[in-house]
Amino acid sequence: MTTTPTKEGSAAVQARRVLVLNSGSSSVKYQLLDMNNRSRLAIGLVERIGEETSRLLHTPLTGGDAETRERTGRIPDHAAALKEAAEELAADGLGLDSPELAAIGHRVVHGGLRFTRPTVITDEVLTEIERLVPVAPLHNPANITGIRTAQALRPDLPQVAVFDTAFHTTMPEHAARYAIDVETADAHRIRRYGFHGTSHAYVSRKAAELLGRTPEEVNVIVLHLGNGASASAVAAGRCVETSMGLTPLEGLVMGTRSGDIDPAVTFHLKRVAGMSTDEIDVLLNKKSGLLGLCGDNDMREIRRRIDDGDERAALAFDIYVHRLKKYIGAYSAVLGRVDAVVFTAGVGENSAPVREAAIAGLEELGLVVDAGLNAVRSGEPRLISPNYARVAVAVVPTDEELEIADQTFALVGQAESAGQEVPVGEVDN
Ligand code: AMP
User: Fold this and answer.
1) Of 77, 164, 399, 428, which one is the catalytic site residue?
2) Which one of 52, 227, 254, 368 is most buried, counting C-beta atoms within 10 A?
């Protein structure tokens, strides 16, 4: 048998893999996906970057049993983290130097008002993401580091930014503006941007699918309840309201964040309690929410404590659920007609007691949960309301990485099929 030699780099190899990177301040999560069937080839996480106790967890998913490999020991920075991840991928025959890799998709937290859709990262785009650092000081710098690191690794590849804020840019002005002096707000770009947009977009679309309708036909309330938590009201596929604001601090009670609070609390903490701005920032973002209320931010542990009769844990749970109910009511009013309330993310997908308590007493809004359906554990989208209910209540597992991969691949594919060259960013070495 003879084989016809192909020129190196010829179109013989179809590039259909996407690497998704989610870079945090001290961590990088990555997934390599095969877009032929949208399956995962490998997933991994590097955490505690810069500390002595750095750790890389890598799981190849191409073989039979998914076995996680672990590397421990100091990983000094994001560049080293990505290099080690690349070595692990290469050991599985999935090297990032492969011509099969089509693009790298990056989760970018803040895209301001400019980025309303996924965007190929050019130098100009990167500069704009940098300009948004003052409104996302905790997140955008890490995302930028991830992008630069990936660009250095594969300068020839298109890199795509998928923004957490993009889905919310359809919010009407009356929902997005704070009622403060307009000149001050505009001078400092103070408005409600919303976050977790990739998840809200994916879950609201999936919910429509579950109902056998198109996204344009349904109004949905999405409750993304993870360690961070946010709600959104999605009318006919477009976000019209969301609970996070200028930063991811506003809205629901979260694992460690307070959510909604009278802004005068901050003046009080400064003037009366003598706390600095940074101390207040840490208090509200890292030491509040469920953690501040009862000393635990993991809903599993809180439920265990409640079962043991712990009153602080029970009060924390009640405060968490009360806030959720307020948002369900408010967003029902905003939407006018609601077709589904959808739970997602770590708590939303797994905690039957939270779902039950959040919907309890909302029969007048058409909302009922079936106890049997609610108790079912499954990784699939599913209804937990009885057939007769006027409004569907559903659990839809979120998949932000798949959504980023889809959007990245679609963007690169579109540009290529239109015969345009996909720009690649220049690298500062
Ligand atoms: P996420 O940010 O989406 O990864 O969600 C993380 C949070 O989900 C954890 O802090 C827990 O509070 C919660 N969680 C994860 N698994 C469960 C579970 N089986 N039951 C209740 N809560 C869970």
Assistant:
1) 164
2) 254
